[in-house]
What we know:
- The protein is mostly helical.
- It has a single domain (12-191, 205-391), classed as Growth Hormone, Chain: A (Up-down Bundle).
- It has helices at 2-8, 13-41, 46-74, 76-93, 99-111, 116-127, 130-161, 164-185, 197-200, 205-208, 211-240, 247-267, 274-285, 294-322, 328-356, 359-383, 386-391.
- The radius of gyration is 20 Å and the shape is globular.
- GO terms for molecular function: transmembrane transporter activity.
- InterPro entries: MFS, MFS_trans_sf.
- Residues 386-416 are annotated as: Disordered.
- The chain crosses the membrane at residues 46-68, 99-116, 166-187, 208-238, 244-265, 272-288, 360-380.
Amino acid sequence: MIRYRQVLAVPGMAPLLGVSLLARAAITADVMALTLYVVLGLDMSYAAAGGVAAALTAGVALGGPLLGRVIDRRGLRTVLLATVVPQVVFWLSVPILPYGILLGAAFAFGLLMVPVQQVTRQAIAAMTTAGQRRAAFALEAVQGELSYIVGPAVVILCAAKLSPSAVVWGVGAVIVAGGAGIALLNPPLCAEGEADPGAAGRPPRREWLGAGMIAVLTMAFGATMLLSGVDLAIVAMLEEAGQVSWAAVVVAVFGMASVAGGLIYGALPRPLPTWLLLGLLGLVTTPVGLAHDWPWLCVAVVGTGLLTAPTLSAVADAVSRLAPAGVRGEATGLQSSAQSAGFAFGSPIVGVAIDVSVPAGGFAAAGLAAIAAALIGRLLSHRSPDRGLRSATPLVPGHRTLSHIGPTPSEGGERG
């Protein structure tokens, strides 16, 4: 735990992580809040609710790199002001918007979602030393897992007691409060030894968006594709067994195992390669469908959970190392977009696998997708020039000439 005490002792780190956790819990619950509002408040179908959720998710995915680019050019507070104010307008107006306008507004304001996750990652990269960074990103990944455990659950509980409009307003209020809190903290986004992005200028994309970075983004996509697929496969498996009411227990076990795995990984003396972590995650997930009732499924998802947060933290750490300071906002935005795309594609692809086979096929499809992404990441990393990799402390250990390619990735968010 010494590593974590050192990270939390960094000036400004503990308040940043606290405010970020609050905001991320609300952001992970925003889709659930809108879903419940459309179904319960507008009395429409789940398909209609899914349309609003998809519009919001698409906006967030497309807006990440754009907001990151503006952060690099204009600074943190400018972007937070430009996103917090529209969020106030959107969440206050949701209960009075007809469905058609809500659909378009969800996409537009998704583009302007407060970039809590990517700002937190940028700040971690700037505020920590190389020796502290892996533990810091492990805490960030654990934070993402906790937000997924707490956020949607709180929204569902509140929906049973309050009106759908009140739940929507509550989620929006917490998102706005989180953005305002980060603006007040104003964490540094460049380390002391790094040149100011505005003064130094932006390096051309060809200098940093090469094979190494594409490898990391591919693995970010594969990791979240697995996670969204596993969530769907759990429900499908238990529905077939007539035990769907136990799905929440299985998901909770999965999440707590991920939290434990992240904490263990951050305390290890040496990192593991990102591609290896993702490949192992895929391997342990593929046979999970062999468990046919909820107690055994709880046991089976522990292995997947233990490797989830380490994989996501490794991805985030890798992006921070491969991206020069002048483009770190755009790079973390691309990471968030890749993870959002993985979540968007994972469920339908795994759903097809379940429909054409059996629920166990969903776990196999999710695991194989992650293995494929790990192999692609490994191959692309080998194509990266040594010069570029050395300057960024690359991702894939195995090159004897490199100092330590490894996790040195959510979206989450992250997970998201």
